[in-house]
Design brief:
84% of the residues lie in helices and 0% in strands. By secondary structure, the protein is mainly alpha-helical. The protein has one domain.
Length: 200
């Protein structure tokens, strides 16, 4: 278990250095797009809470869900981003993003033991709206490819943060760790309700 935790922490550290390395080898336009794309998910509380919740949810499910749920979110989010860039209308985007925090937080809070396909579908559904918001809000002077790479990397790192948080909290104690994770999920869900109220 310690080896697995050390490996995860090392991977998190390596990924955290990736944006700086990427910026060191790109042109000005690409760097501009990458920075804007990377900052978009981390600049909104709704995005951060939902993406961390996806990571914790995947950790709770364990097994293949550890990678399949976050990968599904990132892949579908990229498709949503393309819809946003193309200007294709998608209804209730802000409301769906706010509801993603409520639903994913609640899934963590109750310790939902969803089948893998259901968990991937849930993550993918909300990812479409998150991705659409990222794409629709892309600066006109940003490189689309670099911008997309930025928000995909930031999202993956937030998922990883959720996975690591779940593992670390879970190691506190066999019983207390589960309670802490569920309380965190409940707090996310309540925060999501406040965000929903703000969109109405």
């Amino acid at each position: 278990m310690k080896t697995r935790l050390s490996l995860t922490a090392g991977l998190a550290g390596a990924l955290a250095l990736t944006p700086g390395l990427a910026l060191a080898h790109t042109g000005v336009g690409d760097a501009h797009g990458f920075v804007h794309g990377f900052m978009h998910p981390v600049g909104g509380l709704d995005h951060v809470l939902a993406m961390v919740a996806v990571g914790i949810f995947a950790w709770q499910l364990g097994g293949r869900a550890l990678w399949a749920v976050p990968v599904t979110f990132v892949a579908v989010m990229a498709a949503g981003g393309l819809l946003g860039v193309a200007g294709i209308a998608l209804p209730f985007v802000e409301l769906a993003i706010a509801l993603s925090v409520v639903v994913l937080g609640a899934a963590v809070a109750i310790g939902l033991r969803a089948p893998l396909g259901v968990a991937m579908g849930l993550a993918g559904f909300f990812a479409l709206f998150h991705g659409y918001a990222h794409g629709a809000e892309m600066p006109v002077d940003a490189s689309g490819l670099a911008y997309g790479a930025g928000f995909m990397l930031a999202t993956a790192l937030l998922h990883l943060a959720g996975l690591v948080a779940g593992m670390l909290i879970g190691r506190l104690a066999d019983t207390r760790g589960s309670v802490v994770v569920r309380v965190a999920g409940g707090a996310m869900s309540v925060a999501g309700l406040a965000i929903v109220a703000g969109t109405l």
